[in-house]
UniProtKB/TrEMBL annotation:
CDD domains: OmpA_C-like. InterPro entries: Bact_OuterMem_StrucFunc, OmpA-like, OmpA-like_sf. PANTHER family: LIPOPROTEIN YIAD-RELATED, STATOR ELEMENT OF FLAGELLAR MOTOR COMPLEX. This is Peptidoglycan -binding protein. PROSITE patterns: OMPA_2. Residues 215-342 form the OmpA-like domain. The keyword Transferase does not apply. Residues 68-165 form a coiled coil. The chain crosses the membrane at residues 21-43. SUPFAM superfamilies: OmpA-like. Keywords: Coiled coil, Membrane, Transmembrane, Transmembrane helix. The keyword Coiled coil applies. It comes from Rhizobium alvei.
Amino acid sequence: MALRRRGKERTIDYWPGFVDALSTLLLAIMFLLTVFVLGQFLLSREITGKDEVLARLNSQINELTELLALEKGGKQDLEDTLANLQAQLNSSETERSRLQQLLDKGSGASDSANARIGELTGELNKEKEISQQALSQVELLNQQIAALRAQIAAVEEALQVSEARDKTSQAKIADLGRRLNVALAQRVQELNRYRSDFFGRLREILSDRENIRIVGDRFVFQSEVLFPSGAAELNEAGKVEMAKLAQALLELAKEIPPEINWVLRVDGHTDNVPLSGNGRFADNWELSSARSTSVVKYLIAQGIPANRLVAAGFGEFQPIAEGDSPEARQQNRRLEFKLTEK
């Protein structure tokens, strides 16, 4: 909440706090959506791989089914041939028996009857050989069919294992996403709580300064409070203010758990007035970067770990007040401090 003076009275502006809450909520939602999209992308890639394996297994099953149908057709043809041969064999046996009876009845069989018997006997032997070959082929086909059935059973078992593994993977991914969302929400809540504590302590320390204000989730110092005009070295008043900020940050750092990877970002901004060519800095980019770097180095000297600080310069390209009036330019010459996460 910003404090504004009107005469001798103070009024409380709740709007920045409301903007702060909305910004934090929007950032959390965007991060959750990013994690969810990433989880969905990884899940779709794994499911696509499973679908390709299932497609190959189904193709193999179809091929084996076609081979099995062909083998069954060949087996049926051989069985039909065997039945025909068996019928012919039975007919030949009957004819032979009839001729043998005639031969037995006739005391002297004629040479034609003996010749006929010999022919029938030869045909019978040939048919027996053909029948035996057909039986061998049928046996071979039975063995091939058994092997095909074993292959189909193995493929079906592999397919079932793959489907079970796919279901397990999907369940693990869903559980991982749920746990990640819970952990992320907890981290966001914790960081928000410590950011709120940090803001509260700085409000208590710096509440009596009119040239220090809150914009969204950042503390804003006017450059004139910290630096001489056109310079990047902290003045005495600026060192006092930064020492207060460092003390508040050191006290808060003791309470923040080590797993929260927080940083304090220092952003330097200038107005849109070009620097003179004979100065130390070539342009506002260099001036804003040098000022944020100077603040970071001073905070390090006050005991803040260097890995918890970030310095950035934006020149005149991110104004908070539009226009070229002296008031707008004064607002745009500023240092912003934001407690955030790496």
